[in-house]
Fold each of these.
Amino acid sequence: MHEPNPGRNMAAEIAAQPDVFADLLATRDTIAEVAARIEQRRPRFALLAARGSSDHAALYAKYLIEVLLQLPAGLVSPSTTTLYGAEPDLTDVLLLSVSQSGGSPDLVEVTESGRRRGALTVAVTNTADSPLNSAAELSVDVRAGQERAVAATKTYGATLLALYLLIDAVRGGSGASAANLPELARTTLDESARAVSEAANRYRFAERLVTTGRGYSSASAAEAALKLAETSYLSARAYSGADLLHGPVAAIDADTAVLALCSDGRGGDAMRDVLEAVHQRGADVCAIGSAAAQVRASHRVPVPACAEEVAPVLEILPVQRLALELALTRGVDPDNPRGLHKVTRTR
């Protein structure tokens, strides 16, 4: 049975993000209270547990922790706990468990186990009464509201912003770099609309697509590949710009579309040589971000400039819109992708 207005939920949830960001920023003091508890414990390093889109948000947080807090950070493999029963000593470790629903059994088990083994556990979710929140010592509510589309959009953007506000507060920051994100998000959605529609028409028949970015934008590249795969059934692979040059570039040719995340800053600067190499392979490059005009590309989607560490909050917006429009041009309802459910339970 076909829905009368395919993609309407996803479209509405993408459009809602400026207001979601404004609401979340208004609760910064509450997030700062959690940050103060973390700072008091002075963790020696951080671990992040997540799945799916939340795993990409965790990758973003990994960069924030390593750059802004100067702490080593790593992504947890939940199966080492759930399948293999590993019990490392986590004394003085910060364990951030990131999940939109807070309902995945493996993340709950990892959090419970980590807390028993000495970690300071913090749940970052969109569901304040979730099992994950109950398992963790502290929690941060991303306040995105109910999300009806299967593909995460507003919950992903809100999770990025919540993680930034949390980690920035741990270092004693005021959240100043994020203060104008609601306004910039509206500008991004408005000013990128035409270029996104053109990109959707450009790639509607694409069979292979590679997404890439460096630094903070590595998370956006990973999320872009997931969004395109789950909504358009497009074969999409994500690589950091550095990893792309370490082998996979050999598989790129004139039949490959490349979606490149390029925002102002060191990560965007590092993408110039990457995209020069990709251009020489004949690929069709779509550059998205505030530095899109500064790199080799066949098509560009503009994003307003902001501090590099919060750029992923903005640059993911046209990516989500592209996933929506590309799905519709390919005859797919992105609100109901085949074989997927809103909450995925894994162990």
Amino acid sequence: MSIKPQFLQLLHKTAIITALAVAAGTTQAQPKTSLLVYTAIESDAMKAYKDGFEKAHPDVEIRWVRDSTGVITAKLLAEKNNPQADAVLGVAASSLALLSQEGMLVPYAPVGLKDLNPAYSDRAQPPAWVGMDVWGATVCFNTIEAKKLNLPKPESWKDLTKPIYKGQIVMPHPASSGTGYLDVTAWLQMFGETDGWKYMDALHQNIAQYTHSGSKPCTMAGTGEFPIGISFEFRAHQVKRSGAPVELIFPKEGLGWDVEASGIMKGTKNLEAAKNLVDWMTTKEANQISATWWAIVAYPGIAKKVEGIPENYEKLLVKNNDFNWSAKNRARILAEWGGRYNAKAEKK
């Protein structure tokens, strides 16, 4: 019995359609894993990290939830019994130490951990969080506005308590901003608690406003809204590079600092994808992205000279900065600080 050519063509078309349908079904059955990542990284950096990670892991898509460190920390703690995030990235180590103490992180040693400077990751084995980069306190000083007001250039934290600076200083609110919190905890650790609070009482007399962003004080100094802004070196460098008439001051007593870090949230339904993210954050490629903005990154030998940041910057950081102490005492410190100084907080 012979088969007509028209029938063979029909069979061939049917087979192609069936194959395409199967392929489409397979694609639909394997969608990208959507990874919900809470972050406090600067908006400038979000796209670079997302693009780099998704290029290395095309089967995973990052969905960001971004806010300042204090807000992200509060959000994570509020969600403790019903966690929403799969991972955190670029959140202060002092905050991640608190989450670890609350049992909210999955301890995990990423593939590239051995390549990183151990000083900038959790010392536990395996670590609850892994460092990305260091950010430290920097004072932005507008030379033009200071000259108009006949303000001398401060050299130290103690200088900022002099009466000549009354109403001329802005700094971040420690409950909202990781930068504000690293300032407060550094002063308490450097000067001792009694003298630390005395110092902040005196500084408060000269504060015009406590902002809810670590970047904003330097931005305000750059535009001349206030001549002095207590901020951090990333934003200080960016403001200076934009052409603003600011000098970067690194107070001689020492610089408060923290680490932007990554971790995995306990309860994630996307554990392997979250591990992939933390693995990737330890790579040379990810650290090269960090080095675009930061003078100190976790991967040794990657950081480049940043304009306006001194060569000995790392040596200026406060020694024995205890993130676990900062985490354990966070609620107490913020309650005390708020009771003393909240009257000058920026309105939300």
